[in-house]
Design a protein that fits this description.
mainly alpha; 0% strand; 151 residues
């Protein structure tokens, strides 16, 4: 049986490398998103603590200057949380973009993989047909010799 060679092997390798690189970029984007979400959760907790602290100061009858400072701190934490929400939204959009890039790279690589498999199957079928043809010819030749030798 003759050896199978795939003419598009270099293209297949390039597509698979692109697919793998896209997968890595997606993983990095997902890691970044998780980090941004964790920072947002921390700020949300800090904001809740600042609100609780301000409420306890009000109930305790704390002077206005201290209440003002506590409220200023709470508002600065709220502003930081708003900025962090924007960072999470950007990271989320980045992940969506990288998912799309990966899907496209995967589809391109998959097309070449399917072509490779199709060509390999065709090659195997051609080889089997050639082998069967040779066996049939050999059997036919042998059968004719047997008929002629008995005659």
């Amino acid at each position: 049986m003759k050896r199978f060679t795939f003419r598009f092997r270099k293209l297949q390798k390039l597509r698979e490398q692109d697919e793998e690189a896209s997968m890595l970029r997606l993983a990095l984007a997902q890691t970044n998103l998780a980090r941004e979400q964790k920072a947002l959760e921390a700020l949300a907790g800090e904001l809740q603590d600042a609100g609780t602290q301000l409420l306890s100061l009000v109930k305790a009858g704390t002077p206005a200057a201290a209440l003002s400072n506590a409220d200023t701190f709470r508002r600065s934490v709220a502003a930081a949380a708003d900025r962090q929400k924007e960072s999470v939204d950007r990271a989320d959009r980045h992940v969506a973009d990288k998912q799309q890039d990966f899907r496209q790279a995967h589809q391109k690589a998959e097309v070449i993989r399917k072509l490779h498999e199709k060509r390999r199957t065709e090659h195997r079928d051609d080889c089997l047909r050639d082998e069967q043809k040779n066996l049939d010819e050999l059997a036919g030749t042998r059968g004719r010799r047997t008929v002629h030798s008995h005659a």
